[in-house]
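Sanity check. The docking grid for zinc ion depends on where the pocket ends up, so I'm generating a full predicted complex first rather than guessing from homology. Inputs follow.
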Amino acid sequence: MILDFLFLDENLCLSCKRETHEIHFLCEECLDKLDFVDNEFKILDYNTRVLYFYNDFMANLIADYKFNRNTSLYKVFGSMIYSYLKEKKLFNFDYILATPSSKSVLNKRGFDHIRLICDYFIKDLGISYLDSFKKIKNTKVQHILSREDREVNLKNSFFIDEDLTGKSILVFDDIITSSNTMKEIIRTLEKNNPDSIEIIALASSHRVKK
Ligand SMILES: [Zn+2]
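Predicted complex below; grid placement will be based on this.
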């Protein structure tokens, strides 16, 4: 019966779609492929937390979500971040800043992949989106540029016109590689005098040794 298939489908791992999902909508086999690193380091003096190492499995999962529009994977990433924030008791933020993409990227991709992940948990955490923070420049893809051009490319690419005095902000992005984008986001936020800034990302290609 068709209903049986629908029911079964709901319980399947959102990555391989073969086995029943256990945690974060992933099956045991897929969960085994994750490399949970729980890294903590600083970007411009601000506390940064990264959950997973950007290994092949994570790279494929994120690419499938972003570029193949396998949008249901927002639940996987949302659940990862949500569980982590709960476990570390990281609730005390006024705002979450879902790293914004430029309009052209959003139009091309068809959805805001970072915000959709936050949609999964934001209501439960009682945090608001920092919607006044915008990406105002259509930056080029960073890795094709020289070192100097990268800085110029990112400069003034974000904008916010809101006094953040006394406000605590959690910035979320999917991957942190060079951290240049994150630095530009922090510099933009700093101009508006926030009380605190913390950063969280799903994955990074750098492993912080403990
Ligand atoms: Zn699986």
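Relevant for the grid: Residues 142 and 149 are 9 Å apart (CA to CA).
Also worth noting: The chain has two domains: 1-32, 35-204.
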